[in-house]
Design brief:
Elements lengths: L9 H7 L3 H17 L7 H11 L8 H12 L5 H22 L4 H14 L9 H19 L7 H15 L1
Helix pairs in contact: 2-4, 2-5, 5-7, 5-8, 6-7
Protein backbone atom coordinates (compact mmCIF):
# COMPACT_ATOMS: atom_id res chain seq x y z
CA UNK A 1 0.00 0.00 0.00
CA UNK A 2 1.31 3.42 -0.91
CA UNK A 3 0.72 5.99 1.82
CA UNK A 4 0.43 9.66 0.88
CA UNK A 5 1.35 10.75 4.41
CA UNK A 6 4.09 8.77 6.08
CA UNK A 7 3.18 7.21 9.41
CA UNK A 8 6.18 8.97 10.98
CA UNK A 9 4.42 12.29 10.30
CA UNK A 10 1.03 11.28 11.78
CA UNK A 11 1.98 11.87 15.46
CA UNK A 12 3.24 15.32 14.52
CA UNK A 13 -0.04 16.10 12.77
CA UNK A 14 -1.99 14.81 15.76
CA UNK A 15 0.06 16.93 18.20
CA UNK A 16 0.29 20.18 16.27
CA UNK A 17 -2.54 19.98 13.78
CA UNK A 18 -1.94 20.84 10.15
CA UNK A 19 -3.44 23.25 7.67
CA UNK A 20 -4.74 22.02 4.34
CA UNK A 21 -1.96 24.06 2.70
CA UNK A 22 0.71 22.12 4.59
CA UNK A 23 -1.02 18.81 3.98
CA UNK A 24 -1.16 19.49 0.25
CA UNK A 25 2.54 20.41 0.15
CA UNK A 26 3.60 17.38 2.22
CA UNK A 27 1.68 15.04 -0.08
CA UNK A 28 3.15 16.74 -3.15
CA UNK A 29 6.78 16.63 -1.93
CA UNK A 30 6.56 12.90 -1.23
CA UNK A 31 5.13 12.17 -4.67
CA UNK A 32 7.60 14.53 -6.35
CA UNK A 33 10.70 13.10 -4.65
CA UNK A 34 9.61 9.49 -5.15
CA UNK A 35 8.97 10.21 -8.84
CA UNK A 36 12.38 11.77 -9.55
CA UNK A 37 14.47 9.35 -7.44
CA UNK A 38 15.90 6.29 -9.16
CA UNK A 39 17.83 4.97 -6.16
CA UNK A 40 16.20 3.61 -3.02
CA UNK A 41 16.49 5.28 0.36
CA UNK A 42 16.77 1.81 1.89
CA UNK A 43 17.52 -1.34 -0.08
CA UNK A 44 15.16 -4.27 0.39
CA UNK A 45 17.86 -6.28 2.19
CA UNK A 46 18.33 -3.41 4.66
CA UNK A 47 14.58 -3.26 5.27
CA UNK A 48 14.49 -7.01 5.84
CA UNK A 49 17.36 -6.84 8.37
CA UNK A 50 15.69 -3.97 10.24
CA UNK A 51 12.35 -5.77 10.25
CA UNK A 52 13.94 -8.95 11.58
CA UNK A 53 15.85 -7.01 14.23
CA UNK A 54 12.98 -4.81 15.46
CA UNK A 55 9.87 -6.75 14.40
CA UNK A 56 8.51 -3.97 12.17
CA UNK A 57 9.48 -2.26 8.95
CA UNK A 58 10.93 1.24 9.29
CA UNK A 59 8.51 4.12 8.67
CA UNK A 60 10.93 5.88 6.33
CA UNK A 61 11.37 3.65 3.29
CA UNK A 62 11.68 6.04 0.35
CA UNK A 63 13.35 9.35 -0.35
CA UNK A 64 9.85 10.85 -0.51
CA UNK A 65 9.16 9.56 3.00
CA UNK A 66 12.43 11.05 4.19
CA UNK A 67 11.87 14.53 2.77
CA UNK A 68 8.19 14.62 3.75
CA UNK A 69 9.17 13.83 7.33
CA UNK A 70 12.10 16.25 7.29
CA UNK A 71 9.95 19.14 6.12
CA UNK A 72 7.11 18.30 8.52
CA UNK A 73 9.44 18.17 11.53
CA UNK A 74 11.71 21.10 10.69
CA UNK A 75 8.79 23.43 9.89
CA UNK A 76 6.29 22.32 12.53
CA UNK A 77 6.46 25.59 14.50
CA UNK A 78 6.94 27.94 11.55
CA UNK A 79 4.33 30.07 9.84
CA UNK A 80 2.66 28.77 6.68
CA UNK A 81 4.69 31.28 4.64
CA UNK A 82 7.95 29.96 6.09
CA UNK A 83 6.75 26.39 5.56
CA UNK A 84 6.08 27.10 1.88
CA UNK A 85 9.55 28.67 1.53
CA UNK A 86 11.15 25.50 2.89
CA UNK A 87 9.04 23.36 0.57
CA UNK A 88 9.93 25.52 -2.44
CA UNK A 89 13.61 25.45 -1.52
CA UNK A 90 13.64 21.63 -1.54
CA UNK A 91 11.74 21.52 -4.82
CA UNK A 92 14.02 24.11 -6.40
CA UNK A 93 17.16 22.33 -5.17
CA UNK A 94 16.06 18.97 -6.57
CA UNK A 95 15.42 20.39 -10.02
CA UNK A 96 18.62 22.47 -9.86
CA UNK A 97 20.60 19.40 -8.83
CA UNK A 98 19.52 17.55 -11.94
CA UNK A 99 20.15 20.52 -14.23
CA UNK A 100 23.62 21.17 -12.80
CA UNK A 101 24.90 17.59 -12.67
CA UNK A 102 23.08 15.69 -15.43
CA UNK A 103 25.92 15.59 -17.98
CA UNK A 104 28.94 16.16 -15.78
CA UNK A 105 31.87 13.78 -15.65
CA UNK A 106 33.81 12.57 -12.65
CA UNK A 107 36.24 15.51 -12.92
CA UNK A 108 33.47 17.93 -11.99
CA UNK A 109 32.38 15.84 -9.01
CA UNK A 110 36.00 15.52 -7.83
CA UNK A 111 36.54 19.27 -8.25
CA UNK A 112 33.60 19.96 -5.92
CA UNK A 113 34.85 17.40 -3.38
CA UNK A 114 38.34 18.96 -3.43
CA UNK A 115 36.97 22.46 -2.90
CA UNK A 116 34.74 21.19 -0.11
CA UNK A 117 37.66 19.42 1.59
CA UNK A 118 39.41 22.78 1.92
CA UNK A 119 36.33 24.40 3.40
CA UNK A 120 35.22 21.79 5.92
CA UNK A 121 38.18 22.56 8.18
CA UNK A 122 37.20 26.22 8.48
CA UNK A 123 35.35 27.69 11.40
CA UNK A 124 31.76 28.63 10.56
CA UNK A 125 32.56 32.30 11.25
CA UNK A 126 35.33 32.21 8.63
CA UNK A 127 33.17 31.01 5.74
CA UNK A 128 32.91 33.34 2.78
CA UNK A 129 29.97 33.60 0.39
CA UNK A 130 31.98 31.51 -2.08
CA UNK A 131 32.56 28.86 0.60
CA UNK A 132 28.81 28.73 1.29
CA UNK A 133 28.15 28.32 -2.44
CA UNK A 134 30.56 25.37 -2.57
CA UNK A 135 28.86 23.81 0.46
CA UNK A 136 25.47 24.19 -1.21
CA UNK A 137 26.82 22.79 -4.49
CA UNK A 138 28.11 19.73 -2.63
CA UNK A 139 24.69 19.24 -1.03
CA UNK A 140 23.08 19.37 -4.48
CA UNK A 141 25.71 16.95 -5.81
CA UNK A 142 24.98 14.53 -2.98
CA UNK A 143 21.24 14.70 -3.73
CA UNK A 144 21.97 13.95 -7.38
CA UNK A 145 24.27 11.01 -6.66
CA UNK A 146 22.55 9.44 -3.65
CA UNK A 147 19.00 9.79 -4.93
CA UNK A 148 19.77 9.19 -8.58
CA UNK A 149 17.70 12.20 -9.60
CA UNK A 150 16.24 11.67 -13.07
CA UNK A 151 14.45 13.91 -15.53
CA UNK A 152 10.97 12.99 -14.44
CA UNK A 153 9.87 16.57 -13.94
CA UNK A 154 6.59 17.83 -15.30
CA UNK A 155 6.51 20.69 -17.74
CA UNK A 156 4.90 22.89 -15.08
CA UNK A 157 7.66 22.05 -12.56
CA UNK A 158 10.36 23.03 -15.03
CA UNK A 159 8.47 26.20 -15.92
CA UNK A 160 8.14 27.03 -12.20
CA UNK A 161 11.88 26.44 -11.71
CA UNK A 162 12.72 28.62 -14.69
CA UNK A 163 10.52 31.49 -13.49
CA UNK A 164 11.92 31.11 -9.97
CA UNK A 165 15.50 31.21 -11.33
CA UNK A 166 14.74 34.30 -13.40
CA UNK A 167 13.24 36.07 -10.38
CA UNK A 168 16.37 35.27 -8.32
CA UNK A 169 18.60 36.68 -11.06
CA UNK A 170 16.78 40.03 -11.05
Amino acid sequence: MNRIINSAVIPLINSFGISSLRMMHLIYIKEFIDRISTKPYLHSDEVKILEEQFGVKPDILSWGDYFQSEIAVSAKCLSDDEFVRIFETFKFDMISSYIIFKNKGTDFFEWIENLYAGIEKKDVDQLTDEDNEIIHLRILMNYYKEMGIADRFSESELKWHSSFSEALAV
